[in-house]
Design goal:
alpha+beta, binds manganese (II) ion, 7 helices
């Protein structure tokens, strides 16, 4: 059975870019509901003994297990999203990651433009990601609960672009939310 992992910072730590009220709903209600629903769905099944990552990977191609996949993937995605941010984050990475971004995108600005396009053009609910596969970085967007770990990619950072992630603070202005994420929140550590 799975627990709701603790937030890596207080509920109000990302304000004003993400308000305490948004965190109370997004972490305290939405993320918690994915974990609670997952636990109900896997009770007395083989999945009770697996890691969350293994539940995601083992249900990704199973149309008959869509409910378990959706809740497991959302539980995983949200835990990763909280770790993708920190108070006083944002801006460019340094060191090895900076070099790899420049190698694979040409420049940090190119990466940023591609990431923002992915996040703002994801139609409906979903996620934008920086991922690595075979040593190469790329930007990816996924819809609904879908996640790069179901497709053999290693996530580096993500931003949640479901409306529940930004509507209380930004209403329909998803591009402003994504800009704030990159400028003030992203955690390259
Ligand atoms: Mn969310």
């Amino acid at each position: 059975m799975f627990d709701l992992p603790p937030l890596p910072y207080p509920m109000d730590a990302l304000a004003p870019y993400i308000s305490e009220q948004t965190m109370e709903f997004h972490y305290g209600k939405h993320h918690k509901a994915y974990v609670d629903n997952l636990n109900k769905l896997i009770k007395d099944t083989e999945f009770e003994q697996m890691s969350l990552e293994d539940v995601v990977k083992n249900t990704a191609e199973r149309k008959d297990l869509g409910g378990i996949f959706n809740n497991a993937a959302q539980a995983w995605n949200h835990a990763f999203f909280w770790k993708s941010m920190k108070p006083n984050g944002g801006g460019e990475p340094s060191g090895e990651l900076k070099k790899k971004i420049e190698r694979d995108f040409g420049s940090y600005d190119n990466f940023k433009a591609e990431f923002k396009t992915a996040a703002t053009t994801q139609f409906g609910s979903g996620w934008a990601w920086l991922v690595e596969k075979d040593g190469k970085l790329s930007v990816m967007k996924t819809s609904n609960a879908d996640t790069p770990i179901a497709h053999g990619y290693k996530p580096i950072i993500t931003v949640d672009v479901w409306e529940h992630a930004y509507y209380l603070d930004y209403q329909n202005r998803r591009p402003d939310f994504v800009e704030a994420y990159l400028a003030h929140l992203v955690n390259w550590n």
